[in-house]
Each structure stands twice: as structure tokens, then as C-alpha cells.
Prior knowledge:
- By secondary structure, the chain is mostly helical.
- The protein has a domain at about 15-50.
- It is about 50% helix and about 0% strand.
- It has helices spanning about 1-5, 15-30, 35-50.
- α2 (about 15-30) crosses α3.
- The radius of gyration is 14 Å and the shape is globular.
- The model has no long low-confidence stretch (mean pLDDT about 80).
Amino acid sequence: MADVEKGKKQVPLRLSPRLYDAIAAWAEDDFRSVNGQIEYLLTECVRQRKKNGRYVSTELDVPPELNIE
């Protein structure tokens, strides 16, 4: 509830188990929660887009090929 009080939006998100596990491991390496890691990654993508003045991918609706093992 504290996030809602701070003005943060709640967004339901579905991830494949493999992607979730990869993000969770990365989050642990960076001493963040999974939610914090996802927020960090999205923030960095937005910053990069603003920096370059273009989208990270030209095919935004196409899911990326992930070889997560």
C-alpha cells in the first residue's frame, strides 16, 4: 500500500518462468527485489531511449528471442 500512497502505479505483469528466474538471479546479484530490478531495468531503457532519441527496438511488439538457461 505504501507504493500507492507515493503515487506509484501497480501494473500486473506476466513473465515466463525462465525470464522470471533470470531476473530474480540478476536482482539478487544487484541486491534488489525482483520488483526493484524490473523497475530499474525499465528506467534504464527509458533513459537510453531519451539519450539516443530512438526506441531500443524497432519491433516493439515482437517478443525478443531469449536463450536463458
